[in-house]
Each structure stands twice: as structure tokens, then as C-alpha cells.
Amino acid sequence: MLGDRIPLQYSLCRERDAAKVASLAVKLWRDADHEELKREFETLVKTEDNIIFTAYFQNEMIAFAHCAIRHEYVEGAHSDDVGYLEAVYVEEQFRNLGIASYLMEYCENWARSKGCKQFASDCEINNSASVALHRKYGFAESARLVHFIKDN
């Protein structure tokens, strides 16, 4: 993997890093508000059940992965507490270098250290790059959902 041949630094996100994570996250969730995400990430990093790992290249944050421990039902899971990959994002010019895999591995190891027996995630059905990444990382598809809504 090229990701282990370029000088990257991986670290835990701290409250002071929330704005940088939010700047990446709005590229992932285009309808999201930067300030709202910043506040959410500032809150998440202070909790026991969430962690955000980041990757830096030349002191610039280029990627992040957010993992949570979900205590509620998780589609396809058979255990109570499940590590859940909530998001992973890598700047376009750094993709296909193994960075997302490293971040996902950090997340999975963290979830395992918290006692989780399973690691889950989701993505949009039409996001073929994300589906491929999940499969490459060893995820098995557990379900496909179609959500419906009707105005009254």
C-alpha cells in the first residue's frame, strides 16, 4: 500500500480539531452545516462511546473516521454493543492509498477494546466506491433498505 510509504501522521481528534473535521465532513455530507457539524464533533470527542481518528499530510488534515459504540439495534447484528463506523472520508487526491483502511482498522480495534464483538457500518446504495471499500475491508452486506415517505 502506498499509504505506508508517504509521510502521514495519524492521531485522535481533540475538541480543538473539530472545525477541521467539520471542513472535511461537509464534503461527505454536502447538505450539512459546517458550524453544526463542528459543535457535534466537539461534543462527540468528549464522550466515552465515540472516537474520531484523523490523518495528516504535511500538517494538513486529509482524512477522518468516526466510530461509535451503538447500544441500540443494529441491522444484521447479533450482539448488544456494536462498534459502528459512522463515517470515513479521505480527500480525493489521497484516495486509494490505504488511508481509509488504516483509519477503519483503528476504529475497529478501538471498538474491540471497548468489548464489541461486531463492527458495522452503512452507506448509500448508490455509493459504489463506499460499497467497494466496505467489501474490501471485509464487511459482509447484511441488508438493503429502501425508505419511503408520503405527504398527507
Description:
The chain is an alpha+beta fold and 152 residues long. The longest helix is centred in the C-terminal third of the chain and has 15 residues. The protein is globular and about 45 Å long. Pfam families: Acetyltransf_1. It comes from Candidatus Eubacterium faecipullorum. It is an enzyme of class 2 (transferase). It catalyses: kanamycin B + acetyl-CoA = N(6')-acetylkanamycin B + CoA + H(+).
Quick rundown:
The chain is an alpha+beta fold and 152 residues long. It contains 4 helices and 5 strands. It has helices spanning 18-28, 34-44, 99-113, 128-137; strands at 8-12, 50-57, 60-70, 82-90, 119-121.
What attributes characterize this protein structure?
152 residues; alpha+beta; Aminopeptidase; 5-stranded mixed β-sheet; 4 helices; 5 strands
What topology does this entry show?
Layout: E1 8-12, H1 18-28, H2 34-44, E2 50-57, E3 60-70, E4 82-90, H3 99-113, E5 119-121, H4 128-137
Parallel strand pairs: 4-5
Antiparallel strand pairs: 1-2, 2-3, 3-4
Helix pairs in contact: 1-2
